[in-house]
Specification:
The protein has 386 residues and is an all-alpha fold. 76% of the residues lie in helices and 0% in strands.
Length: 386
Amino acid sequence: MAFLRNSAVNRVNLHYAVQALAQSGGGVFFMVFLLRAGLSVPAALSAMAAIIAARFMLRPAILPLARRWGLKPLLVAGCLIVSLQYPLLSQVHGLGAGLATLCITASIGDVFYWPSYNAYFAAIGDTEHRGHQIGAREALVSVAGILAPLAGAWALVNLGPGPMFAAVGAIQALAALPLLGAPNVAVKAAAPGAFRAARLSVILNACDGFFDAFFVFVWQIALFVSLGESFGAYGGAMALAALTGAASGLLLGRHIDAGHGARAVVVSYIVLTAIVLVRAVSVGSPWLAVAANALGALLATLLLPVMTANSNMAKASPCPMRFHIATEGGWDVGCFSGCLTAAALSAAGVSLAATILLALPPLALAAPLLRRYYASGPGAPIAAAL
């Protein structure tokens, strides 16, 4: 298992697994807790859009800090700032100052964390083992997601949101510990062509962001409603989904590293299309919704071709940090547009089932681009895939 010999990647994957405990124990309740806190479906989706819009506007400010300090300090800072959003979430009571404070804190944490994490992982990883390394990471995430939603749901019901989200915030902060012994990665003062090198990835991430708005955020609301707005049932559904996806990432990652990326794209996007259709017809039926949610656990695995391509293109670019600042901006544009579209449709009375189907168009756009990238070979010019 040569892909396990990279100690820096192992540290980052351990960090990500602990971060996943917080995400699975608290983050998966973010949207549905806003509903319980008194927000309507359009208001909850609009709040998410506001967080994403603030991320987009603040992100360029991270580059001077990255040039001065390198990636690891920013990653650690982002991990700690993200931890603050969970206690703040418990203080939201409808529209007001609590929600505004949450949105601002969440956006700042994401601005520090995600570009730094993605650039760091791209820089320290190995191109020839990228699929394996991402697959191992996603397997750890799936394992973390089995018990954490059950524990989070139990704590919400029995202890209340204050203690529950405080504990989740502490776990998120502890995720910084494995990073302390990892090497820093410097960011160049200038890197001509770095943003140009991200063109394909920006398009892919914009598609992914629009897809996530419906497949993740709208679906979480639809699942919660389908399960009678029960935190216990919702947490159980999330745990079952994590169990379903625990081993699949390693299998597909091995397939990509063996040179079958184009084939993996075809399989992944056909299955994703089928899952979107199943989710749409399951809204309102508890058992069908639970089954559709379990199938959705394959998402991280099925998006391995995208994540592998992004990381390898970033490593080959003049500057992985600038590359991911651009690609994160693409995701923000896509997800912001998707969340606002979903909010408008909900306000107009369109059903959640019909709204979920809007996850299909970005799949149709991204699949041929990604397949062309793998068919051209990871070392081919970006223009060959566009």
